[in-house]
Amino acid sequence: MKINVIGVPLNLGCDRAGVERAPNHLRERGLMGVIRKNGHKAFDLGNLYVPPVSEADKFVRGNSMKYLDAIVEVNTNLAELVYDVQSYPAEDIDKIEEPNMQPTVTTYPSY
Fold this sequence. Notes:
Blueprint: E1 2-7, H1 22-28, H2 31-37, E2 41-47, H3 68-86, H4 90-95
Parallel strand pairs: 1-2
């Protein structure tokens, strides 16, 4: 099986600092190695960009939907990326070799 890993460092829906660190944390703990060890081809496509938002934007679209615009933007970008990756012919993906490099780790401020 071919598995593409896409990180989405987003914590806007839960109001808990630290959730946005999960994609990098999983990579640091060997996620790609675990996938490959189990016989799969794995490609790390990195993290999606999550735009910074202010507390003032929290309920701009109503009292029950936090950060709606930013969340919709991130999910739209994710959907586009997944669609783009799926549109490659399978024979082309077989030719791709993942570069031998360390994962990019983003540092976030403490809250």
